[in-house]
Specification:
The complex is a heterodimer of chains A (197) and B (116). Chain A is an all-alpha fold and 197 residues long. In chain A, 79% of the residues lie in helices and 0% in strands. Chain A contains 9 helices and no strands. In chain A, helix 1 (5-12) packs across helix 2 (16-38). The longest helix of chain A is centred in the last third of the chain and has 33 residues, at 164-196. With 116 residues, chain B is an all-alpha fold. Helices cover 77% and strands 0% of the residues of chain B. The model of chain B has no long low-confidence stretch (mean pLDDT 79). Classes of the chains: A mainly alpha (197), B mainly alpha (116). Chain A binds chain B through residues 16, 20, 23-24, 27-29, 31-32, 35-36, 41, 44-45, 48-50, 52-53, 56-57, 121-122, 124-125, 127-129, 131, 147-149, 178-179, 182-183, 186, and chain B through 6, 9-10, 12-14, 16-17, 19-30, 33-34, 36-38, 40-41, 44.
Chain lengths: 197, 116
């Protein structure tokens, strides 16, 4: 744990400076997690602020210090889930936007090695994003926490508050769905490559 | 064959997830992160306060109306004007003083005429 319980206690009693200290201790980690969960770096701060606002208003419900981190993760996952749901609703209006990959490719055409490296990263990000968008938001978050964030089953159980067996089943099904989407996109890419040749 | 293909796909997918994790630049919060968060907290606190205030006003109003209605219903029934009898019944039960005095006068006149 990055902070001690006394700090949480002070924040619960209305000490705003203590709450700011908690946020400062965790914001980097939370920003990173949210970035990988939602896949859109430009909206990460907005979602992170929302997660910390929820933390502020629910601090008095925290009973023991050892559940603080799973609980903060839970709030983070919920804020990310709400964001993804809103994004899904707005998706059609965003279809006309240039993708991040297109923008970086345009930059890379005029740049050197550094830009090509950046392009490779953005391509991987877009490909994974595309795959994760093919499944439900619940599957996306669960898989990202397990496969990308590297959370253990015990940690996931603390975040989701469900039994380990139920989690395993959900993880297996989510993975199968992503795998299917991956197989389809892979075949589509192969067909496209054959047409080019 | 099928299983080997599935294993290969699983490995590729794991590789893609790793690339995805590494593709994000290190998170660096902007200078406006904390002030922006406190602004949000303040906004939400105010809207919560307004909601609580409005709820209390609504509850007070409802309680006042309830008390008024209860008071109206508890007023004793004798103070109410009730039309329990019809107009004809009321006329029949009322003392007919005019009729009696008229009959008396007639009776007296008849008596006087007899004596004469």
């Amino acid at each position: 744990m990055l902070i001690d319980f006394a700090l949480i206690q002070r924040a619960r009693e209305g000490d705003n400076a203590a709450f700011s200290e908690i946020v400062t201790a965790y914001r980097k980690r939370i920003l990173g997690t949210i970035g990988r969960l939602i896949g859109r770096p430009e909206d990460v701060e907005d979602v992170a602020q929302e997660a910390f606002v929820r933390l502020y208003f629910s601090l008095d419900q925290l009973r023991t210090p050892d559940v603080f981190e799973p609980w903060l993760y839970r709030l983070t996952v919920n804020a990310s889930y709400d964001y993804l749901r809103k994004q899904r609703r707005r998706k059609e209006s965003r279809m006309a936007d240039l993708s991040e990959q297109q923008v970086v490719m345009a930059d890379a055409s005029a740049g050197g090695q550094e830009n090509r490296e950046e392009m490779r990263r953005v391509q991987a990000r877009e490909q994974a994003n595309e795959l994760l968008s093919a499944v439900s938001d619940e599957d996306r978050l669960l898989l990202t926490l397990k496969e990308v964030e590297g959370l253990s089953l015990k940690e996931l159980r603390d975040v989701y508050k469900v039994g380990e067996n139920a989690l395993k089943v959900r993880l297996f099904r989510a993975r199968q769905r992503v795998l299917k989407a991956y197989e389809q996109s892979r075949q589509a890419r192969l067909v496209a490559a054959q047409r080019e040749h | 064959m099928e299983e080997a293909n599935r294993d290969r796909l699983n490995q590729e997918l794991d590789g893609l997830f790793l690339q995805y994790r590494d593709s994000f630049p290190e998170a660096a919060p902007s200078a406006t992160f904390l002030p922006g968060m406190w602004e949000r907290i303040e906004r939400r606190r105010q809207s919560r306060f307004q909601f609580t205030h409005l709820s209390r006003m609504f509850l007070s109003g409802a309680a006042a109306i309830w008390l008024l209605l209860a008071g109206f219903l508890l007023i004793p029934p004798s103070r109410h004007i009730r039309a329990e009898h019809s107009y004809v019944d009321a006329l029949a039960s009322a003392p007919d003083t005019d009729g009696n005095s008229f009959a008396g006068v007639v009776h007296e006149e008849i008596g006087e005429a007899d004596s004469q």
